[in-house]
Amino acid sequence: MQFRTRHRLAVALAATALCASAPAFADDGFEEGSVDSTAAADNYPLGYAARPLTMPRGMVRVTFDLNVLRLDLGGFGSDAVVSLNWGAAIAPAKNLELGFSRYRMGAFPGINSIDVLGLGASGLITAVVSPTGDFGDIPFYARYQVLQSVVDIALEFRVRFPTLTEWGLAWAVPVRIHAGDVVAFDTGLDLALDGPSNANVFSIGIPFDITGNINENFFLKAQTGVSLPGINEDPTVTIVPLGFGLGGSAEIGRGMLDAFLNFRFPIFAAFAQNQSEVTTEIWSLIFGLNFYTPVLF
User: Which long-range contacts (CB under 8 A, 24 or more apart) does 6-13 make?
Assistant: First the structure.
């Protein structure tokens, strides 16, 4: 009962914060798009690889994903953690994006321990439906894009509210490199602290994702990188994930919709001291939907 009360209170506060942030900037003229139309595709690229790291001012994104994580329990067999996750984000000012969501452009699914500790159950509203029913964690992020050109750079701060696991904090510098409008390379630096009260896990992650648009409506993605979950522990383990994805984007009225499928081995290769191991028994499958509103203010 305590978890339910805390979860409902956090959801109510989150929804109030997102809605309240819009009026404070409503008096400013819209500067993001090159046309007068407020339709989503006129202000934010339909092609996934062409998008910057933040939405244009006045846009709202609503996200949903179904996450299946298969765990290898050794001699106890295997099990699957299935969760349903809803999130929301808003761009209340130019280059600024705030969200209660685990989805972030160029950084989904996340590479660091703060993103995987909850076993995929993370969102403004989230529910673990298997193997047992439970609530997931609530993530909040603030991202400010400091450079938008051939190379996009942003500063990011994240908090994980512990409605399932424990507190988590993260600081990141996402970087997106564009090769025209059809290919994007996503990388950067991600620093995470799980359990800040006793600093039990400090992690570093460097993602490396490649996204390519077949045409404006369809895209493919390959994901890897390097993660050091617990650099304050001995021995230090280095993890290399491996994932693949595909998706499509379409205009829905004056809004826009993404649908995508992602398959990943979150611990594909692990290295510690003179040992190494490849693990394919642990994998995740994600089906996601993102809806983008027209520019609202």
Answer: 6/163, 7/135, 7/138, 7/163, 10/138, 10/161, 10/163, 11/124, 11/125, 11/138
